[in-house]
Design goal:
358 residues; mainly alpha; 0% strand; HEAT repeat domain-containing protein
Length: 358
């Protein structure tokens, strides 16, 4: 299976299918090498179509003085437009406030709204511990009950990061409040961010709550529970997820369980997916399990997925040709079908684009 050092060089691969698979792998497994953003920007500069680069996956990657200046240059030079410009701005504004402070005027020259956001982040970083905690409490209260699209996720994420990096939030205190909030209002924005905090703190005794929250009908709650389980990523987590898979009947939850297993970088996660695939008979779940194994870089899964591509699978849910192609390139596996698969993928992409254009 893949490891981050093995995948990292493929960020700059010429084929966007491969480079984006590498970005996705590192983003979803929360493995952030220090030079990861520099590689993403290198890929962006060299890409003939900037919109093909998965910048939306890179917002949380760590930045440096060099990458901040590089992003400012790209934005000033007009080298990125449309959604790529928006996603690049999210990478820039996701930088540590210490990196944003010296370049506030440069950001202001680019966009007044970006400047206001960056200046607010810098201001927050200068607050005392008590003030940060108070502001987090105010913001979770202010955002409570709002529609998803109206919630200020960026500010809440920043405040939570400050609380964790300064060690203002302690595991026991966080868990006590989370248990209380989850009992009183399991779908509140406060609960969502406490689950995120417990995951980032890797609180192992929060696992029963994470498992329960994964079943939530609230997308934010279930998503944060899944992320928390990936961050903890222990043998205990894998064992429980397999047990849940074998006991659950809800189709959507079963797919979510596979997704979490596909993001945990332990050999037992790969073994679990292989074992589940061997006995699965549901058309869509077979495709999901096979895709998960490709995402993990499973050598053992290559012949299985190779056969699935030949005999057919649920193409409405996942495109296994893309998954196995990127997997094989990063593994260095040379299959006779690779060139043909890439041509078929390109043809299908062109057909989809033509349909969108009408």
């Amino acid at each position: 299976m893949f490891n981050p050092d093995q995948v990292k060089p493929f960020i700059t691969h010429a084929d966007p299918l491969v480079s984006n698979a590498a970005i996705r792998f590192l983003a979803e497994t929360y493995k952030y090498p220090q030079d990861i953003s520099a590689l993403v920007l290198e890929k962006l500069v060299s890409a003939p179509r900037k919109e093909d680069v998965y910048l939306h996956r890179a917002a949380a990657f760590p930045q440096t003085k060099v990458t901040v200046q590089a992003m400012l240059h790209l934005l000033n030079a007009g080298m990125v437009t449309g959604n790529s410009r928006i996603f690049l701005s999210r990478m820039l504004l996701g930088s540590n406030p210490d990196l944003l402070k010296p370049v506030l005027e440069q950001i202001k020259a680019l966009d007044e709204d970006w400047y206001e956001e960056a200046a607010e982040y810098v201001r927050i970083s200068d607050l005392s511990d008590a003030e940060v905690r108070s502001l987090f409490n105010e913001e979770t209260q202010k955002n409570s009950g709002l529609d998803y699209e109206d919630i200020d996720y960026d500010k809440l994420d920043l405040l939570l990061t400050e609380l964790i990096e300064r060690e203002i939030l302690q595991p026991r205190e966080t868990m006590d409040e989370l248990q209380e909030q989850y009992t009183l209002d399991p779908q509140s924005i406060r609960t969502v961010y406490l689950i995120q905090a417990a995951g980032k703190l890797k609180i192992s005794y929060a696992l029963p709550l994470f498992y329960d929250a994964l079943k939530s009908d609230n997308d934010l709650v279930a998503e944060q529970a899944a992320d928390a389980l990936v961050r903890v990523g222990s043998e205990e987590v894998i064992e429980k997820l397999v047990q849940m898979y074998n006991e659950e009947k809800d189709s959507f939850l079963l797919l979510s369980l596979v997704d979490v297993l596909s993001r945990i970088l332990l050999p037992s996660a790969e073994e679990a997916l292989i074992a589940l695939l061997e006995k699965e008979d549901h058309f869509t779940r077979i495709a999901k399990l096979a895709d998960g194994l490709c995402r993990l870089g499973s050598e053992q899964a290559v012949p299985v997925v190779q056969e699935l591509v030949k005999i057919g699978y649920d193409k409405d849910y996942v495109e296994l040709k893309e998954s196995i192609y990127a997997c094989c390139v990063m593994l260095g596996r040379v299959l006779p079908e690779l060139d043909e698969w890439r041509k078929e993928i390109a043809k299908e992409d062109e057909e989809r684009m033509n349909k969108l254009r009408g």
